[in-house]
Design goal:
With 158 residues, the chain is α+β, with helices and mostly antiparallel strands. The protein contains four helices and seven strands; from the N terminus they run αβββαββαβαβ. β1 and β2 form a beta hairpin. The longest helix is centred in the last third of the chain and has 15 residues. The chain is globular, with a radius of gyration of 19 Å. The protein starts with 24 loop residues before the first helix and ends with a strand.
C-alpha cells in the first residue's frame, strides 16, 4: 500500500479520478429510476431534495478569516442555507437536489475540498456529514427534534 499526502495524484496517472464500487444486481433493480404508483403503473422518479449538514474541523484559524471564507462560499454558491463557525470548526447546512442519497452525499463530501482555494477556506477536514430526505427533515421538525430550521439564514458564529 502506497501512502501519500491527501490530494496527491498517483504516480502512474496525470490526473485524479474517482471510482465507485459496484452495488450489485439487487441495488440496480431497486434504483432503476422507476417506481410504482398507487395504481400499479410505473412512473419516472426524478431528483429529490436532501438536507445536508456538513461539519468540518481543524487547527485554530482567526474568526475573521473563517467568516470571510464562509461568506465567499455562500456568495459563490447561494444554495447554502446557513453556516455556523468557531475558531476550530464550522457547520454548513443546505439543500441538495440529487437522484438518491449516494449522489447527495458524494456532492456534499466534495464541497469543502473543491472550494477550499477559491473561497480561501481553512485547511480543515470533514468530520461529520448528515444527509436526510425532505420528508424525514420535516418529520423531525414536526416532532420537535433537530436539526432546527435554518433561521436566520447566513453565516453566523456558534
Amino acid at each position: 500500500m502506497r501512502r501519500a499526502r491527501p490530494g496527491a495524484t498517483p504516480r502512474a496517472s496525470a490526473e485524479r479520478a474517482l471510482t465507485s464500487v459496484a452495488a450489485g444486481d439487487a441495488y440496480e433493480e431497486e434504483t432503476a429510476g422507476e417506481t410504482r404508483s398507487d395504481s400499479g403503473a410505473r412512473a419516472e422518479e426524478g431528483p429529490r431534495l436532501w438536507h445536508i449538514t456538513l461539519t468540518v474541523s481543524g487547527a485554530e484559524t482567526p474568526l475573521a478569516e473563517v467568516r470571510r471564507g464562509l461568506e465567499q462560499l455562500a456568495h459563490d454558491h447561494p444554495f447554502l442555507l446557513t453556516s455556523r463557525y468557531a475558531v476550530d470548526h464550522a457547520e454548513i447546512r443546505y439543500w441538495e437536489e440529487a437522484r438518491d442519497l449516494h449522489d447527495a452525499a458524494a456532492v456534499a463530501l466534495r464541497l469543502w475540498g473543491e472550494h477550499r482555494q477559491t473561497s480561501q477556506l481553512p485547511p480543515w477536514e470533514i468530520v461529520g456529514l448528515e444527509v436526510i430526505d425532505r420528508e424525514t427533515y420535516h418529520h423531525r421538525i414536526a416532532e420537535g427534534h433537530g436539526p432546527l430550521p435554518a433561521a436566520p439564514v447566513g453565516v453566523h458564529p456558534f
